[in-house]
Amino acid sequence: MSTIGVAASCSCLRPGVWLLKPGVQKMSCLGLHTAARCAAKDCYEVLVLGGGTGGITMSARMKRKVGAGNVAVVEPSKTHYYQPLWTLVGAGAKQLATSARPTESVMPQGVDWIKSRVTGLDPDENCVWLENDKKISYKYLIIALGISLHYEKIKGLPEGFHHPKIGSNYSVHTVEKTWRALQDFKEGNAIFTFPNTPVKCAGAPQKIMYLSEAYWRKTGKRSKANIMFNTSLGVIFGVKKYADALLEIIKERNIAVNYRRNLVEVRADKQEAVFENLDKPGVTEVHQYEMLHVTPPMGPPDVLINSPVSDEIGWVDVDTETLQHKKYPNVFGIGDCTNLPTSKTAAAIAAQSGVLDKTISMVMKNQLPTKKYDGYTSCPLVTGYNKVILAEFDYKAQPLETFPIDQSKERVTMYHMKADMMPLLYWNALLKD
Ligand SMILES: Cc1cc2nc3c(=O)[nH]c(=O)nc-3n(C[C@H](O)[C@H](O)[C@H](O)COP(=O)(O)OP(=O)(O)OC[C@H]3O[C@@H](n4cnc5c(N)ncnc54)[C@H](O)[C@@H]3O)c2cc1C
């Protein structure tokens, strides 16, 4: 606990950042530089799109800034999930229910929850469109729409999930299937995949592999399992310090890594997985599996593709240091839906939220934003039921560690931070107003 206290007192943003709160800044609508006051409920001082990690965090901060009744979040889901726990749910170490809370309960008091889906953005007119053709206007817009999962881009999915032996920690609908497949394992190949797209939490595809390996060791089945990590990437992890540590573990635990292999088809009835070789176009490999863990292709939410606020791919096009939109000064982006060139994690959002809070304060005062985001992100690499390597790094893929110890070593303390302390900080500090 004391180390966390030290971290929180730093100006830099680390796991302890989840405890940091912005100072309350009283500011009425009339104090803002933009023209008319928003009175009706179809116009808000600050409109937040998406009520996931980034959206709820920013709505709490914005309510402090502009007051109750002046902030709204557009979010269709009734349930809010703390997704980082799904790694442990898939391995049977936590119940799915512990990752879920009603959206209503995480919506900060005084923030309006608009239970709908955004269908279009018109930043030239300062408004967005919702499902029922309802228009909502704003003075300031924060986009936090997350990343979309595309299981359907793999032939045979998602219908293949109706068969046993296959799971995926990335979706609430399939995460418990991972645990079932893990327990059902008898003998053969256990294959873990990493797609050929950006993903959220790039460590998660291999965390479940280490947990599975540990589970089979514990249950006496390890010698029956041929464990394979088939990844589209050419490296095991993007930061050398942690990659070196992971490669040691992979060697020691006798895991096979096949680089530049992309899952393109699942024949779930035959328990076959088909991979393309990204270095040999047209060449595919078929592997029989006894267990398959799928990390799906991912991409920007549909509503952002070809939107005026997006780059050519569909990510919200923001300044890498201030998170302000490159073209529309009253529009901001946070989290997985942005083109910030860092690893997409909740930890990154914790760091981004502090910077974005300051950026918006300055913009509201007609001043230039000064606080800069360094790309901080963190990935607790779970390597067993009581072991974690805590990777923390910046835009340059340089370690940016919180603790004065070698974080590339597997540690029990870091496991408890990931499994027990982080969820508490998430619900009780990061999301709170
Ligand atoms: C298996 C797994 C393990 C992970 N492990 C870690 C970890 O150990 N550490 C870590 O820091 N991070 C981890 N993450 C990543 C982390 O959960 C995400 O990076 C983070 O939640 C992203 O927050 P976000 O606000 O950008 O998106 P989300 O939290 O996904 O929220 C996006 C919201 O937008 C809403 N939305 C989408 N489209 C629309 C629309 N058209 N209109 C209105 N609303 C819409 C969605 O309903 C959703 O609520 C993990 C994720 C997974 C899946």
TrEMBL record:
Residues 44-163 form the FAD/NAD(P)-binding domain. Pfam families: Pyr_redox_2 (PF07992). PANTHER family: SULFIDE:QUINONE OXIDOREDUCTASE (PTHR10632), SULFIDE:QUINONE OXIDOREDUCTASE, MITOCHONDRIAL (PTHR10632:SF2). This is Sulfide:quinone oxidoreductase, mitochondrial isoform X2. It comes from Apteryx mantelli (North Island brown kiwi).
